[in-house]
Amino acid sequence: MAVKIRLKRTGAVNKPCFRIVVTDGRAQRDGMTIEEIGFYNPVSKEETINLDRFNYWKGVGAQPSGTVLAIATRCADPAKARAKPGEGQIGTSKRTRSSKPSKVELRKKQAEKAAAEQKPA
Fold first, then answer.
1. Predicted confidence band at 91 (pLDDT cuts at 50, 70, 90)?
2. What DSSP string describes 62-73?
3. Against a cut of 0.70, is the pTM above it?
């Protein structure tokens, strides 16, 4: 039996939430699971994973999906991981969007630079 660690979709239409689950690789995406080990909400950027159980399943041969592996890597960062008493090590992280300026703002800055360069001439 090929065991995989992947996302199981929950939530409403246009409001996705995902559970991080351990499942048989042949099962349907939202089908029967072996164990639920975490949660991922792409809207609010909340991520929670039980790193002890993740490492256990990975150690016995379960293959994590790319997204789950990225979530586990972010949650395993010691600066972001918080352990709750009695629950083993649980990693959580809340990502924030980068402060990259939008294309419109970049165009305005370029137009201001061009106008400033033309005035002295």
1. low
2. -EE-HHHHHHHH
3. no
